[in-house]
Design goal:
Blueprint: E1 4-6, E2 12-18, E3 23-27, H1 38-44, E4 49-53, H2 70-83, E5 89-94, H3 96-108, E6 113-119, H4 138-150, H5 152-159, H6 170-180, H7 185-197, E7 211-216, H8 224-233, E8 238-242, H9 249-252, H10 254-266
Parallel strand pairs: 3-4, 3-5, 5-6, 6-7, 7-8
Antiparallel strand pairs: 1-2, 2-4
Keywords: Hydrolase
Pfam families: Abhydrolase_6
GO molecular function: hydrolase activity
Length: 268
């Protein structure tokens, strides 16, 4: 039986959980799912309570038509943590998941979070007038949203290779496409818009918990400069660059990613 948690507003979250000890929660990117962390579950669960969570609307969680904002996703994670009485959690946020982590810290404080690991994301995805390294300007965002509505398969077949340094195998292409098309296009567009315009530049200097930044050197989507920018804003944060990765070092360099993360956790 697959484990689900039913939120107070009726949405259900799918999750996988293994191990015991300090809780580590892995939070995926937009349109993605917990399956992207399949190389982490068995490794980290040897020493820690390891939780892979599908955000609402994503993966195997319910496709509820409401609540698709970073703010709501952070509240969902907080409700999950509170209900399960998890203490001193470590939050791992990849891509959009980084925004969920930062929103969580901003809304609910840092007292119950032992550390956070940010994987390949910027302080904001939007190219604000004073933030030229953003991923999207308005025309690009409009184009991507229209592509999701009009021909999602072709749009994603063009987008997914941007996440990886090397060409994917046919097997990997198949399971990734299956995961990223589980949600309806309406949800995909709604959360794409919200996650693309949130901006945490003003909040990041207030983070005081240990922070590890993991960035792929290949800059098809997110430049390493985005990691250096966050490193300057978050006092004491550590930047680790993965030479043979693009957007997914936990898949592209799983062994090194796992070692870097576990070394960080053991020293906080």
């Amino acid at each position: 039986m697959m484990p689900f948690y039913t939120l107070k507003d009726g949405a259900t979250l799918y999750y996988e959980q293994q191990g015991e000890g300090t809780p580590i929660i892995f939070i995926h990117g937009v349109w993605m799912s917990s399956r992207f962390f399949h190389n982490q579950l068995s490794f980290f669960s040897k020493q820690y309570l390891t939780i892979l969570l599908d955000l609402r609307g994503h993966g195997n969680s319910s496709h509820t038509p409401y609540g698709h904002t970073i703010s709501t996703y952070a509240r969902d994670v907080h409700e999950f943590i509170t209900t399960h009485q998890l203490k001193d959690v470590i939050l791992v946020g990849w891509s959009m998941g980084a925004f969920v982590v930062w929103e969580y810290l901003e809304q609910f404080g840092q007292e119950n979070v032992k550390g956070n690991i940010i994987v390949d994301e910027m302080a904001s995805d939007f190219k604000w007038p004073d933030f030229p390294i953003g991923a999207f300007d308005l025309p690009a965002l409009i184009s991507l949203m229209q592509g999701i509505q009009l021909d999602r398969t072709s749009t994603l077949k063009n987008f997914i290779p941007l996440m990886f340094k090397d060409e994917l195998t046919e097997e990997d292409k198949h399971w990734i496409m299956k995961e990223v098309t589980k949600m309806p296009e309406s949800i995909a567009s709604a959360i794409l818009f919200d996650q693309s315009i949130v901006d945490y530049r003003d909040f990041l200097p207030f983070i005081t918990i240990p922070t590890l930044l993991c960035f792929g050197k290949e800059e098809k989507l997110i430049p390493v400069a985005a990691g250096r920018h966050i490193q300057k804003l978050v006092s004491g944060s550590v930047l680790e660059v993965f030479e043979n990765s693009c957007h997914c070092p936990f898949l592209e360099e799983s062994d090194r990613f796992n070692k870097v993360v576990i070394d960080f956790i053991e020293h906080i």
